[in-house]
Amino acid sequence: MPAVTADTVRLPRLAEPALGAVDRPVRTITTAPSGFEGEGFPVLRAFAGVRLTDLDPFIHMDEMGAVDYGPGEPKGTPWHPHRGFETVTYMIDGTFQHQDSHGGGGLITDGATQWMTAGAGILHIETPPEELVVRGGLFHGIQLWVNLPARDKFTPPRYQNLEAGQVELVASPDGGALLRVIAGEVGEHRGPGSTHTPISVVHATVSPGARVHVPWNPEFNALAYVLGGRGTVGPAGRPIEAGQLAVLGAGDLVTVAADARQDAATPGLEVLLLGGRPIREHVEAYGPFVMNTRAELIQAVEDFQAGKLGVIPANALMPHRG
């Protein structure tokens, strides 16, 4: 169950779809393969097998967990560099610590979101806090990579931290769906997140048997990734389930519906809706660097090796070892 929830009866409601609004059709549905990241925590590679032109302006997304760790099991990432893009880390349940080479740091916990603009370059670590490592517990989150256009590749690094209570909560007209608007606009409702590249990020919980039509900027692309449960997406009602990503075509709204019967572990359909204004520039990526040319990638590696992306601070956060 996501950490951020609410009684939809008391929330503002989405407007009914406008007359003539075009429901975005499903172009493809892919299933995310499993893998491991950092020191060995489990992830689903949500964008695997999808063309970058369909993802633009997004580059990469991992679903971290969901996993209920035992004592001593939680893991994170060691110190690592980034250049040329922004990371969006959304903690659905659980806690992550972070620190960077520019003096930033803190906790991302239970429904909070952290934007990190790597820009010209930064060193960074994300790791579960000592308390979570010692006792274990639920861990579930998303890390999304948002590309920067060539003109912003070398912008200074920065952070934006959004606590769980800052997201905009909206209900469907019949109250059958709860939408957490993290960034971008959904009809007249706007989320607090801000990135260099305009995007929308919405986490929807749809009750069994319910349906929601989500207004969507026609200039943006549209992706629907299922975090839990089963349902359908698009005007033709294409079946979709946990760990699957739908790439949608052009239109004014996105339709998702939850199956009437769900597994006991997932009371409803949990779906992450993503979209952004395509950058339409050539992408060259190598590990934690996302640039426009191979020469820029080589320069990023050389700058990292020369310490130009930053240095690990003297009071550096390090992974807790039991």
From TrEMBL:
Residue ranges of domain Pirin C-terminal in the record: 202-309
Statement: the UniProt record of this protein carries the keyword Metal-binding: yes
MF terms (GO), sorted A to Z: metal ion binding
Cofactor: Fe cation
InterPro entries linked: Pirin, Pirin_C_dom, Pirin_N_dom, RmlC-like_jellyroll, RmlC_Cupin_sf
Residue ranges annotated for the Pirin N-terminal domain, each copy included: 46-146
Residues engaged in binding Fe cation: H80, H82, H124, E126
Record Pfam families: Pirin, Pirin_C
Keywords of the record: Iron, Metal-binding
UniProt remark on cofactor binding: Binds 1 Fe cation per subunit.
Similarity comment text for this entry: Belongs to the pirin family.
Designated name of the protein: Pirin-like protein
Species of the source: Frankia alni (strain DSM 45986 / CECT 9034 / ACN14a)
